[in-house]
Amino acid sequence: MSTDSLRRRDRAALAARTLLAVLGGYAFCWGVIALCAAGTFPLGMEFHDGETLGSILALLLYPAAFLWAFAARSIWRVGAVLVGGGALMAAAATLIQSALT
Amino acid sequence: MFQSFRHAASWVHTWFGLVLGYVLMACFFFGALSVFDREIDRWAIPASRFAPQPMPSFDQVLRPVFESMQPNQASLDQARTLVDGPLPMHWDTPKAWTASATHRDPVLNLEARWETPNARVPDDVVGLRTINPRSGKALADDQLKVGSQFFYPLHHNLTLEYSITANGRDLGKWIVGCAGLVMLVALISGVAMHRKVFREFFTFRPGKNTQRSVLDLHNLTGVLALPFHFFFAFTGLLIVAGSYFPVTDTQLEPLHELHEKMEAQETGLPHERAGVAAALASVDAMVSEAQRRWAAKGMAGEVGALRLTHVGDANGYVSIFRAGTDRIASVSEGIHFQASTGQVLREDPPQTTVGGIADFLVGLHLQHFRHWLLRGFYVLGGLMGAACIATGFIFFVEKRKKQHARAGAQGCRVVDALAVTTVTGMLVATLSILLANRLLPEALPASWLPRDRLEICSFWTGWALAMLHAFLRSGAVTLGKINPAWREQCWAVAVMAIAAVLLNWITTGDHLLRTIGAGYWPVAGMDLSLLVAAGLAMVAARKLRQRERGQKATGADRARAPAGAREAVNV
Question: Is the ipTM of this complex over 0.95?
């Protein structure tokens, strides 16, 4: 398959998807780890265990999210899920934290 | 924008693989060398060529050494960037002393830590020392442990420790992190790219044209070791996940604080100093008590690590950890003693489920356990990873070379020259540091750079020269031919590897007959590996010569096509 002949119009889209894959994926992973660490703490899990569990999940989800950012039809949906989802999870973690401390 | 998932996967695999593959080559190759880092250290530091030692007496050997330690210059330089006023002239009240040993180390690594006073962000300065545990004598500070202090950090942070944030100093760590992520992505997309998965994965046609057989080899090395590649990229990221995602040090810092206070309460291990001076009881007695308790649990063992926290304070405590020589999870079964009385404060409880899983994953990556056959397979896996990436580059070039030659485009030429740099050039660099290590005299003139700096300089100089050579000779690629730098650098590798073995013999008297005869495998194994590498490089060089000759006969007619259609070819 020829991937060499992508048109210039596509370059902007590719750049956007690359940014979304790297930074959006990072934001989503951050949210997963934060929510895992804060969410499992009141359930009695050891704090660093919660963090580690979050890291394991996040590192498995990151490559999947990365590929999805290129494969998905709608770039807006990718952005909404990765960045929006990450922000929501991080916000939830902060809420849990402020209830506990 | 892509017609299908397969097209997207293919694009991601090709282009991200191309950009970060160069970094991944270094991670896999130097990671493979790090499996035998302690053995490479023995080759590089002849004074340390003796049998591994257990942890020596703390009271007699370690304590006087720890008491004489001061922060290292590099650590002080780092601290200066975080403190506005002057730093203390003499550092007393250490925060912690740590000694760690493995079943492969004849020498012992000691670390002392002090809190940096008045730092803008909380930070520590460290002092490091390597001693001969039989005498307590320190190894010279400028003796570079080429394996554990250079190849090992190279594989996880490229030894690029530039400051990009206030408390992070690891540009290289982030580059390697991106490369690790791309490795995971490349493995998934690599599988997804194929239509006839099984048939393509178990096909190898070495007799076919270069492009075909290179792709077969790329699939073979990628798939055969797929679990290995995935596991190492994944666990590599997991080990440093806390610094890639510093969630608990930033956003969740208050919760982290709360946890630490609760933990200190629960464990009885003081979180802070009391501010009251106290003497230190016999640590040797604590060690024998710890060993007695391990034996009572049916897991008698040696001490892997020993740490004294809050040195000289009434809240001080000694933690003794068991060496993980006989299990996968690295160091565990910690027992903690009150430093002033020697009373047991706490025995670590059995591992939690998540902690156990994490220790297992991390332990498999770090391999503190004793299993030489598995260690050998690790090297094989790492080299297969490197071969997989290298064949990826060559396939990229082979697929486009003729087309680029017709269009007069330079893309292939650059990719090919970079591939030479990362494949044979990396070997040249590795051999450069080994040669420099044997060629530099024991005592250097005072006006020279320290020995370790010179050795590291020779590594990067060797690599830079190899790169220069690869680019200077890359003209052939624009004619659709093989870059002769591949062959020439193979010869360089062969000559340098043999020279390294000879220099080891001349400078230390340890030739192969003697080391094999004495069964001293760290150095014998290193020399044998160098000779095997030399042999393989010679075979490769001869094969390349044959191919170049063959090309001259058939490929001469494919002269440069008129340039101008450049834009159509390159993305």
Answer: no
